[in-house]
Design a protein that fits this description.
Layout (H helix, E strand, L loop, with lengths): L2 H8 L12 H4 L12 H11 L11 E4 L6 H12 L23 E6 L6 H12 L11 H13 L5 E6 L9 H9 L5 E7 L14 E4 L5 H15 L7 H11 L3 H17 L7 H10 L7 H4 L4 H10 L10 H9 L8 H13 L3 E5 L11 E5 L3 H10 L2
Parallel strand pairs: 1-4, 1-5, 2-3, 3-4
Antiparallel strand pairs: 6-7
């Protein structure tokens, strides 16, 4: 841990609970600069990207693994470092082993959850490559594509584009991604990140290598939890034994492990405690839905959908007894400026995407199909806190 992080842990801010030093450090959607215990995966990625150190483009590749295996954390940390390599627009580094280091390709990271259209994708790539700001309005997709051809046509080394979260609901599909890259010059290499096995996706027809990222081993996940707690919590707030309990329960899924830690921390903070207890951990396990959708998916939804979900997680049992009751309660809130019809449509859309679930009521009164309620497929405490912090 660096000096800045150590100082931050000891800072006291008025009105902030003493237990919690930094909510973002505990967040399942936050990636830290040095992911814990992912050395072998980093080495495989570096082996694949090795041509860039000689100023050449690597072939396309597909990185895959289950939710919470650290795919995004490792790749974003690696690309952050690779972006510091000298490119054609930067000064050349001189070393003791050779007179001049070859310039390397540029590196661009794109989140398919955010770039769900052709325009958004090309805009994200171009905006990362040029110094001037690229306008979001008043230009067309063809203009962006032409500008990209112009920019990339003037470079000898090209660019490596990582596209994360490919193939998820509401994100860029595998076939669409292939078409998007087909519209770019040949000096573009890509690294796609998804959850499907190589045999289940068309991406591997266009890649030279598939790199698997497996679930975290239990001790690795303990290290992840303790690393996050060392930054986000007061000293000795998380006992090593409780971290092991969370890691065992999470079964290798760092997203769920961090979400459980977040919930337990929130419980302890609300109770005014300086340390987490087994009861806090058990309470967190009870809140976590099974299966749990990634909070990254939830927090990448359009603002109006997130506003609907924010109201949903605060509704009581009566207002959640049916879709109709839930719709009326949310549309009647002063915090949501949406009609009942729009709210209901959003709920149905998010149920299709797996963000919420329609659960049929066991009790039935009268004739016809029993009503169904809407349950979130994500931990309400974590979403509520992160949503409020970002407003």
């Amino acid at each position: 841990m660096d000096i800045e992080a150590r100082i931050k842990r000891r800072q006291r801010r008025d009105g902030e609970p003493r237990l919690i030093q930094d909510y973002e450090s505990l967040s399942p959607v936050t990636h830290i600069e040095e992911p814990a215990d992912r050395g072998p995966v980093l080495e495989r990625l570096l082996d694949h990207l090795d041509p860039v150190f000689d100023g050449k483009l690597p072939p396309n590749a597909y990185v895959y693994g289950p939710k919470g295996s650290g795919k995004s954390a490792v790749v974003t940390a690696l690309f952050t470092q690779l972006e510091q390599l000298p490119t054609e627009n930067r000064a050349v580094i001189h070393t003791s082993t050779r007179a001049q280091s070859p310039t390397s390709p540029a590196f661009v990271y794109v989140d398919a959850r955010q770039t769900t259209s052709e325009f958004a994708f090309y805009h994200a790539v171009l905006d990362a490559l040029v110094e001037e700001s690229v306008p979001e309005h008043g230009i067309g997709t063809e203009t962006l594509r032409s500008r990209l051809h112009e920019v990339l046509g003037g470079t000898r080394t090209g660019v490596v584009v990582t596209v994360d979260h490919v193939g998820e609901p509401r994100s860029t599909s595998e076939s669409d991604l292939v078409d998007l890259f087909a519209g770019l010059p040949s000096n573009v290499s890509w690294l796609a990140i998804g959850r499907l096995n190589p045999t289940e996706t068309v991406l591997t027809e266009y890649t030279a290598e598939s790199i698997h990222v497996d679930h975290y081993q239990r001790q690795m996940l303990v290290d992840v939890l303790m690393t996050r707690a060392s930054v986000g919590l007061a000293q000795q707030a998380l006992d090593h034994g409780l971290a092991r309990d969370i890691a065992e329960w999470a079964n290798g899924d760092s997203h769920d492990a961090l979400a459980a830690l977040f919930i337990a921390t929130d419980r302890a903070s609300e109770a005014g405690r300086a340390q987490l207890t087994p009861a806090d951990i058990e309470s967190a396990f009870e809140e976590m839905p099974d299966p749990c959708v990634s909070l990254g998916i939830v927090l990448s939804l359009p603002p109006n959908r997130q506003a609907v979900l924010r109201e949903l997680v605060d509704l009581g049992p009566k207002d959640r007894s049916s879709v109709t009751a839930t719709t009326e309660a949310i549309s009647g809130s002063t915090a949501v400026d949406l009609s009942a019809g729009t709210v209901k449509r959003f709920l149905y859309e998010m149920a299709e995407a797996g963000v919420v679930e329609r659960v049929q009521s066991e009790a039935q009164s009268g004739q016809g199909r029993p009503p169904s309620r809407v349950d979130p497929r994500f931990p309400p405490t974590v979403f509520r806190r992160l949503y409020d912090l970002r407003q």
